[in-house]
Amino acid sequence: MSDKDAKLQEMIRELAADFFSRESNRQSLLTVTAVEVVARGSVARILITVIPESEEEKALGFAHRQLTDFKHFVMEKSRIQRIPFFEVALDKGEKNRQRLDEITKKL
Q: CA 107 to CA 70: how far, in whole Å?
């Protein structure tokens, strides 16, 4: 990964965290854990975790509905010349890491 991609990922992660924090209704904790930039910056996948787990589907639906507004937010708050297409997905890697932590604590 190039430095340019890393900077883009971090900028989008910070903007997404700020945006979803402002727009959420606080019934669940939605955390932006990472951003994956693919196709030379034309697609950015925002990875989130949600607590409690029972609210994951609602939070994911909320995040999907907000992507158009998020794109406008990015255009206002950043100087990214080519705004990528945004996707949102649950961060399965973080979920698996948390599960492994629970298992190792029990040992």
A: 43
Judge whether 20 and 59 are in contact, CB under 8 Å: no
Nearest Cα residue to 86 out of 106, 68, 104: 68
The structure's pTM equals: 0.85
Give residue limits of the domains in the chain.
3-106
List the one residue out of 26, 46, 21 whose CA is nearest residue 35.
46
**52: which strand partners?**
none
Residue 102 corresponds to which tokens in the numbers above?
Answer: 């629970």
Please, what are the averages of pLDDT over each run of 10 residues along the chain (107 residues)? 84 95 84 89 92 89 95 93 93 77 80
Q: Which of 8, 24, 9 is nearest to 61 (CA)?
A: 24
- What is Dmax (Cα atoms) for the chain? 50
Please identify, in words, the CATH class of the domain defined by 3-106: alpha beta
